[in-house]
Design goal:
Blueprint (H helix, E strand, L loop, with lengths): L2 H62 L7 H9 L1 H34 L5 H8 L7 H11 L11 H29 L3 H10 L4 H12 L1 H17 L2 H5 L5 H11 L3 H24 L13
Helix pairs in contact: 1-12, 2-12, 3-6, 3-9, 5-6, 6-9, 7-8, 9-12
Length: 296
């Protein structure tokens, strides 16, 4: 008599276990199907994006080869047009100067705001985002009006115009360079690094140079790449300030030639990917932290 109830109490538990196991297996299979369908959708989106991105480049490349003999458009640009090299070198030099000035301005600013006055960070971010809402045409007219006469008649000389165009590019680089620097500072413990460096007798300049900057290498390279891309492709400022930059050269080439602009587009795309490869190579060895002994 006592065994009956014991058997009766164990049997429903076994049946429930079997039923729950049977119900769990279809759920896992359904989950697997959902996972596989998600992968398929992801691949479709990725391939569609690649197709959308590379198809215009492929068409441009094929069009650039139509000038006979094949490759003559590239030869005309690289070997028979001195304006290509001169404009590209000018934009590269101006871009490097812009990058250096932007780093000197924004690294100490972002570092000090995060370390000492974090409540001002939203206001600094708002200021650095202003180039997104102020068109370059407004900026160039403001600069020419402000510096056309005394006490700084910069528009009267070629060097003065170079100073104006670099200053304008520094302003245009604020959103990209500051965001990159701020993200890099957010990824490291600047307060601990600063206190450790100060405990070893390092001053503010030594802390920035030997502790903060090495930890921001990847962030600085990312901002530098974006800044360089802006300078090389910018047209409005260089055109109104009459500078021999790459953007106005490409626009004039497209007005006078048919196949050469396509060749220049492919060359510029290749240079862009080369710069990305250099950034990836340089930033590859900067994953670890910088030793604090550098602050001595």
């Amino acid at each position: 008599m006592s065994g009956g109830p014991a058997f009766g109490t164990r049997t429903p538990g076994v049946l429930e276990t079997i039923e729950s196991s049977a119900q769990a297996r279809p759920g896992r299979r359904a989950g697997g199907r959902r996972f596989n369908s998600g992968k398929i959708i992801s691949w479709i989106i990725f391939l569609a994006g690649m197709f959308y991105f590379f198809l215009p480049l492929l068409v441009t490349f094929v069009f650039s080869l139509r000038l006979q003999p094949t490759g003559q458009a590239y030869a005309n640009v690289l070997f028979h047009d001195p304006r290509f090299a001169s404009s590209l070198i000018y934009s590269l030099v101006v871009g490097l100067i812009t990058i250096v000035i932007s780093i000197l301005l924004l690294v100490p600013t972002a570092y000090w705001v995060r370390l000492r006055v974090p409540r001002l960070r939203p206001y600094v971010e708002f200021i650095t985002l202003l180039p997104f809402v102020i068109p370059p045409i407004i900026l160039v007219f403001a600069l020419t009006r402000a510096f056309a006469g005394p006490p700084f008649p910069l528009t009267a000389t070629s060097d003065g115009l170079n100073i104006l165009v670099i200053a304008a590019y520094v302003i245009l680089s604020f959103p990209y360079m500051y965001r990159s620097i701020d993200s890099g500072l957010q990824a490291i413990d600047i307060r601990t690094l600063t206190e450790a460096a100060q405990s070893m007798g390092a001053g503010w300049g030594r802390i920035l140079w030997a502790v903060i900057l090495p930890n921001l290498r990847v962030a600085l390279l990312s901002g530098a790449f974006l800044t360089l891309a802006i300078v090389i492709g910018e047209y409005t400022l260089a055109s109104f300030l009459v500078r021999p930059a790459f953007g106005p050269y490409l626009a004039l080439l497209g007005r006078d030639k048919a196949f050469e602009p396509a060749a220049v587009t492919i060359i510029a795309f290749g240079l862009t990917w080369l710069a990305m490869g250099v950034i990836a190579f340089i930033g590859r060895g900067s994953r670890g932290s910088v030793p604090l002994t550098g602050g001595r």
